[in-house]
């Protein structure tokens, strides 16, 4: 008897659906998704470290290697070749890809995204690309969760929740911080904070952490032990740090956006790779510290070993505190550029680790400056400012203040820094959001109107598809018709009370209402005299299919008071959208996206 895996899985699925309630089934699936996320995190981490070890190790051990600075160029070329000749598809950029799948693909991700980042991200970072593994881990985990959800025929709301579970599991596994992982999923993916969603998120986080413990034990990516307790007298310094990290967040975002715009001007992707690789190689030659994710550098700063971090062949003999501060500031600038170039040039990675790297540098510099100036009687704890700086920049760049607060609190195994974390993260987020309404993750989606937010009405409108509400069963009139033709070709053959008018090129010109011709349509003496041009009127408003989003369409109905509005594409008539069908579709989508 031939073994049929698909048939067996179908039978198991049917049994589960009959035996478990919807909530119980979601909890079970979330545990599996968490397990998959943990495995993805482990695999990505090990593959990256394997490549780095084959190339000679981290930046300190590679310092003697005369060729280490060409590795990023080789890595970008390998990713390019894999994408063009093997995958033959655009891989897409991190979290934005997942958010787009939620808003425009009904929670489904493409199949190749299950494995694409698993191959390209370790190559990018293993060869020295300046990015992080967090976003590729989330993308691969989310893609696997949507494949699993598709097999189980889950609803759109459940699919979105499983993507959130994948994200929570990925972050929890990487940092062994379950609360931060859950909050990350809620903040970034705009999940509803309800008991129905919280339990699966919690289960996924726990499942992923257990997976991580199985492979790595209690080893964590960031090592720190808080020594001194938080002093209330340091509050003004943390307020100022919030302002500084907000400024740095805005700067990083602008550098990131500018870099992407510049690289988009390249017509050849190969030229983009070469230019990006050469820039990275040049930066790496000057400052090897920006090699890869940068967690080893962060750990050295947390341990107070900035002399190792600032070790540079161009600064031999310089050991003054102010030279250290200046060098750390240069590292901040170089890391911003290197991360932006890595991703813009085609490398696969995220900004999470670079944000932590830059934030730690800012906090460490800030603490050193305070102590160097002798502002306080007792020197402040530089390691505390290093940690809080990470939270401040994360809150500003990613617009995720709660994730920033709880992540740092969890990796320090305590909440003694909770107050300064809240102060700095809140100020940084408040200032940054004033000048940058959307994060790096969501900026492009927001500009296109494809961003799902915590605003339920706006989220539902974003998820709706304009194609599904267009009606095309209207009798079209041409502008050379007379009244007789209007009656015979339009009124008699249609059960609608509105008729679109187009020219010989099908360009939309206006509308004729049945009420406008009701009193004359039986007067045969007017059949040859009255024409479409005379009877036609201007539409209350027009919906441009390529430009208008659902939010804009709803606004047009509200402002005009119309019940039907014409839809055009490049000026040509497509159909009508009726207010009644739009509201019906809205109610249906609201039901679909509610867990």
What key phrases describe this protein's structure?
single chain, 25 helices, mainly alpha, four-stranded mixed β-sheet
Structure in words:
This is Chloride channel protein. It is a multi-pass membrane protein. Residues 536-593 form the CBS domain. A four-stranded mixed β-sheet has the order 1-7-6-5. Residues 58-64 have low confidence and may be disordered. By secondary structure, it is mainly α. The chain contains 25 helices and seven strands. Helix 15 (352-373) packs across helix 16 (382-398). It has helices at residues 5-19, 22-54, 71-87, 94-104, 116-126, 134-151, 156-175, 178-189, 195-216, 235-264, 269-286, 295-302, 306-309, 321-344, 352-373, 382-398, 401-411, 418-435, 443-448, 456-463, 483-491, 514-517, 532-535, 550-560, 579-592; strands at residues 470-471, 477-478, 498-502, 508-513, 543-544, 564-569, 572-578.
SSE blueprint and pairings:
Layout: H1 5-19, H2 22-54, H3 71-87, H4 94-104, H5 116-126, H6 134-151, H7 156-175, H8 178-189, H9 195-216, H10 235-264, H11 269-286, H12 295-302, H13 306-309, H14 321-344, H15 352-373, H16 382-398, H17 401-411, H18 418-435, H19 443-448, H20 456-463, E1 470-471, E2 477-478, H21 483-491, E3 498-502, E4 508-513, H22 514-517, H23 532-535, E5 543-544, H24 550-560, E6 564-569, E7 572-578, H25 579-592
Parallel strand pairs: 2-3, 5-6
Antiparallel strand pairs: 1-7, 3-4, 6-7
């Amino acid at each position: 008897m031939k073994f049929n895996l698909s048939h067996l899985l179908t039978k198991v699925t049917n049994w589960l659906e009959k035996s478990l309630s919807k909530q119980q089934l979601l909890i079970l699936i979330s545990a599996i998704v968490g397990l998959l996320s943990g495995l993805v995190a482990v695999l990505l981490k090990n593959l990256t470290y394997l490549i780095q070890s084959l190339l000679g190790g981290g930046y300190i051990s590679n310092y003697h290697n005369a060729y280490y600075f060409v590795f990023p160029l080789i890595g970008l070329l390998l990713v390019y070749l894999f994408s063009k000749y093997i995958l033959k598809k655009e891989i897409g950029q991190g979290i934005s890809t997942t958010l787009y799948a939620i808003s425009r693909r009904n929670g489904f991700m493409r199949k190749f995204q299950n494995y694409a980042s698993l191959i390209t991200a370790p190559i990018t970072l293993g060869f020295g690309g300046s990015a992080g593994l967090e976003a590729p881990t989330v993308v691969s985990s989310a893609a696997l969760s949507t494949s699993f959800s598709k097999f189980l025929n889950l609803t759109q709301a459940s699919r979105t929740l499983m993507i959130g579970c994948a994200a929570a599991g990925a972050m929890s596994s990487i940092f062994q911080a379950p609360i931060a992982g859950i909050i990350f999923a809620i903040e970034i993916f705009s999940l509803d904070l309800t008991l129905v969603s919280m339990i699966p998120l919690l289960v996924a986080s726990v499942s992923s952490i257990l997976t991580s413990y199985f492979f790595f034990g209690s080893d964590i990516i960031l090592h720190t032990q808080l020594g001194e307790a938080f002093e209330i007298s340091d509050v003004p310094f943390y307020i100022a740090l919030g302002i500084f990290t907000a400024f740095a967040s805005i700067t990083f975002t602008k550098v990131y956006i500018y870099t992407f715009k510049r690289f988009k001007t390249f017509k050849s992707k190969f030229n983009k790779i070469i230019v990006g690789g050469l820039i990275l190689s040049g930066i790496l030659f000057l400052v090897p510290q920006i090699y890869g994710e940068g967690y080893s550098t962060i750990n050295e700063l947390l341990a107070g070993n900035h002399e190792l971090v600032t070790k540079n062949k161009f600064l031999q003999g310089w050991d003054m505190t102010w030279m250290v501060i200046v060098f750390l500031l240069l590292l901040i600038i170089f890391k911003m550029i290197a991360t932006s170039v890595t991703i813009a040039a085609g490398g696969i990675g995220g900004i999470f680790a670079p944000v932590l790297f830059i934030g730690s540098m800012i906090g460490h510099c800030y603490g050193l400056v305070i102590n160097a100036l002798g502002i306080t009687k007792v020197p402040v704890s530089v390691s505390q400012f290093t940690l809080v700086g990470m939270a401040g920049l994360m809150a500003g760049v990613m617009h995720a203040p709660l994730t920033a607060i709880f992540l740092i609190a969890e990796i320090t195994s305590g909440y003694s820094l909770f107050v300064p974390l809240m102060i700095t993260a809140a100020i940084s987020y408040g200032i940054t959001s004033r000048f940058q309404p959307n994060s790096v993750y969501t900026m492009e989606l927001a500009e296109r109107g494809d961003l799902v937010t915590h605003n339920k009405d706006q989220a539902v409108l974003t998820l709706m598809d304009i194609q599904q509400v267009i009606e095309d069963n209207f009798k079209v009139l041409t502008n050379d018709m007379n009244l007789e033709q209007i009656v015979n070709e339009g009124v008699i053959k249609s059960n609608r009370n509105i008729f679109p008018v187009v020219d010989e090129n099908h360009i939309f010109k206006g509308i004729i209402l049945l009420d406008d011709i009701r009193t004359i349509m039986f007067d045969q003496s007017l059949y040859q005299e009255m024409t479409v041009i005379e009877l036609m009127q201007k539409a209350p408003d027009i919906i441009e299919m390529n430009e208008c989003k659902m939010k804009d369409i709803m606004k047009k109905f509200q402002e005009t008071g119309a019940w039907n509005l014409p839809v055009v594409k490049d000026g040509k008539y497509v159909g009508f959208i009726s207010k009644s069908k739009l509201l019906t579709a809205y109610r249906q989508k609201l039901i679909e996206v509610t867990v």
